[in-house]
């Protein structure tokens, strides 16, 4: 696994229009002030194409290796988000020592995670929410809860962008689901069977139908996580199958956006 901000900086130099984002950076494992500076620099250098996705994670071993208290990660997430936003807001303030300069374009901050705590945190303090391990029907139900949580937090119901991670393996053979589940198992260190309900596997047309169901369920963005080392090959087939779903979509700014998560 490559470090995300370094990798996205390289990606920014090789692209002109693609959205670049972290999905997700575990904020409690890092210094918020440093993350704010890195995100601001990437937003400036990419021409405003960066989205900072943050999350708390669920693996105690990562926290142990970083010397951070796993049990305190929720509180640290809340503190970290506040500190990142405070750093961005300091740009141009004459009486602030060590203010952020130059001032970046606004950096959308998305909160990742499917838990109730992550959803409520997104409703309260984020510009977007990006869960995983949700099917289209469950996503639609949980999205309704997000809208309610957002209103309860004193914000407009549509204030939070709704995204979702779709795990996809494209292929026409009978083993494509098994291969994808094994690949995810090696990444997350949980049994392959755990992905039976979450992995969309099969021909590109079948995967495209499932992605389209997420959009129909209310997603503004679908983050495609390819469960294979040959991510670009799978992604290209999927995009080819999706294109007919939106006639004239290339000319429409309202077309839902697909963002590939490189393996």
Task: Describe the fold and architecture.
- The chain is 43% helix and 16% strand.
- The chain has 263 residues and is of the alpha/beta class.
- Strands 1, 2, 3, 4, 5, 6, 7, 8 and 9 form a nine-stranded parallel beta sheet that branches.
- It is globular, with a radius of gyration of 19 Å.
Secondary structure: elements and pairs:
Layout: H1 4-14, E1 20-21, E2 25-26, H2 32-45, E3 50-55, H3 60-66, H4 73-89, E4 109-112, H5 116-125, E5 128-130, H6 136-152, E6 161-170, H7 176-188, E7 199-202, H8 204-216, E8 221-226, H9 231-242, E9 257-261
Helix pairs in contact: 1-2, 2-4, 5-6, 6-8, 8-9
Give the structure's gist in a few sentences.
This protein is an alpha/beta fold. The chain contains nine helices and nine strands.
Which labels suit this protein?
263 residues; alpha/beta; nine-stranded parallel beta sheet; 9 strands; 16% strand
